[in-house]
Each structure stands twice: as structure tokens, then as C-alpha cells.
Amino acid sequence: xxxxxxxxxxxxxxxxxxxxxxxxxxxxxxxxxxxxxxxxxxxxxxxxxxxxxxxxxxxxxxxxxxxxxxxxxxxxxxxxxxxxxxxxxxxxxxxxxxxxxxxxxxxxxxxxxxxxxxxxxxxxxxxxxxxxxxxxxxxxxxxxxxxxxxxxxxxxxxxxxxxxxxxxxxxxxxxxxxxxxxxxxxxxxxxxxxxxxxxxxxxxxxxxxxxxxxxxxxxxxxxxxxxxxxxxxxxxx
Length: 237
Description:
mainly beta, DUF3108 domain-containing protein, DUF3108
């Protein structure tokens, strides 16, 4: 769920916790279609984020989905979750397969993109501390988020490096697996790859407290919308 940023910084009350695992039910226009999870772990100076999405039996009969996205970071450099080092997206969605990798060489200001299926390769110039889409989500969780403000960030989205804004839209009280909670609704102005890939940007509901738990996410797809609803939160120590 951002390293180069126009903002007032990370509030002391919002403390990242590692390890952490988030488990979601996925629904399409109100119909349950699968599950997703995001987990962040660390070993030494290496921090890793793994995101997995799978279709349920009903959807798999005609449109199987198996998405896995892995990112790794140097936790001794940069802001949370660390300086991006490697990103890999491997997906199966119906008959469509993808397998892409990005190797970040921050010291050289270059990211090396590789498509493991087509053989396409590219070197992309990047500003210092550019991060992948999924890592940027973990960073944005712990900013001082103010309604009406739009911090910006450098990300590498596939082969496209760009500076995007994150709109802080409103505060909203909703019912969740954690009970009824106050949330902050944000809108990253970038289309995600994998399970949230669609025609519109993602809206994310974060708890309005020091935990900043993403309890809901929603995006428009070609027909209707996909919603991820938190069903389990396993916090770090």
C-alpha cells in the first residue's frame, strides 16, 4: 500500500510494525471472488513485502487468478520500508500471464527492468529513492495525513518513472472486523498492477490512529469494482 515526498514528515505517533500480515476478502460488485494477503517481514537489513491474491473455487472455474508480488528493501537506508532494491510481479489472470522484475541501482540512479516472458529489457533513469508501487503504499501509511493535502512521490510503475500525488480525501467512520473505527480515505493517483489493476485509481481506508491499518481498498475495473475488505490483522511486536 513513498520516499521522495512533499510533506511535513512522519508523525511520532504512527510507528511502523514489522512483521505484520493483512488478510482480505475480495469481492466484485458484492460477490466474493477470492482472497488476498500482504505481509511485511525483515531479516537483518533486508525488509521484504509479499502480496498474494487468489481466486476462489467459483471464479477459478472460468477465470483463475494467481498473483504474487515481492519487493525487497535495504532497511538501513531511506525512510520506511527502506531503499528499494528488487521488485517482481508474477501473475496469472485467466489466460494472461506476466513475469516482470525491476532491479533498483539507487547509487547509479538507474533501474533495470526485465520481462521474463517476452525478454524485453530496459534501463530507466530514476531520481534518488524512487520506490515501487507496493512499497510506496507502506510508506504512505505513516505520513501525517491531512484532509485536502496531496503529498507527492517518485515511483517506478513498470517501465514508467513518474511523480504522483496522493490525495487525502476525507475522514469516515466505518464498520470493520476491528469494530467501528474512524478512518482516513486516501487516493493514490496511480493504477496498481495485480489484483487492484483497473480503469481507475484505488481508494484506501486507513484507521485514523497510530496503527494506520488499511481496512478497505476499492478500485473500478472494466465492469464494476473490486473491493478488498480486511478479515484478519496480525500485528508485529
